[in-house]
Amino acid sequence: MSATNGLHLAAEIGGPPHYDARHYVELARLAERGALDFVTLGDSFARPGPDALAVLSRVAPATRRIGLVPTVTTTHTEPFHVSSAVATLDWVSRGRAGWSADVSTTEAEARLFGRRSAAPAAELWREAGETADVAARLWDSWEDDAEIRDVATGRFIDRDKLHYVDFEGATFTVRGPAIVPRPPQGHPVTLIDGTGGPSQEAAARHADVVLVRATAPEQAAGIRADVRRRAAAYGRDPDTLRVLVALTVDLGDAETAPEPGLESGPPLAAGGSYYRGGPVDLAELIARWHRAGAVDGFHLTPITPERDLERIVNGTVALLQHRSLFRTFYPGGTLREHLGLARPANRYALAEART
Question: Are 336 and 342 in contact (CB under 8 A)?
């Protein structure tokens, strides 16, 4: 289990695109009433609709505690801009930002930019890992007390506390320092879907939250153990990872009886990523898997956000709270605090302290 031994819950608030910010604000506020750790908003270059990061920047001042995690596609996007935008979201939300790294593999999306052709997924995920690496370095390129803001002397920054990152990757170089001060969380939370394939190594090496898919708690436990083993091989403390099962949920049949043969438990599709049933059975599934030590929590994607998120919060989450399996309030103010993750020390300040 996680270092806090607590259950972590998150939800996706995307769906058909909406161009009125109130839609996303209302969904985020609903999730916040349930004390969920964070909401995600999916995005890609292939779908219509507003930019997820921009949308959640608008949602941030309309919410108080819920974590905000937009999808950010690292392919065709400058790593320096990724770092700056995510850091800005962390400032706007006062320490509640994360980002879900993803890649773009299609030629149609590549043509939207005209800079390069599509590339194999393995190559793109190596680049995504390098983007996560350089983003963390850029967030550290300002020490926490680099801002002076001394009006009398006209000094805004202590230049000795700004650092060049001088990063050289396979497809880009970044000198730095950042143009945004170090974020309130130090490093906004990084989420990667590490279910399988080329994203696994990037998740184990760089993610704070890893999404996986499984059909049974025993399978989930094995995947979680593998993610932690891979992280340890990169010199990371496995207890700094949160492994969440990604589950698409359809609660439209909340008032109907289970299908014959499914009375003994909630149904899971063969792919392990789809649940169809009622809020009570979903709560039973979550409680059983978590008590078995299989996962740190769940990331739930409602089939119909307006309908199913309400049933998740007022049905599933309320039942878990009634059974003292999930918190009823936020004990902290940042997403890292929700997840039980420490604020990272600044690598450059540590290096200077050792010399």
Answer: yes
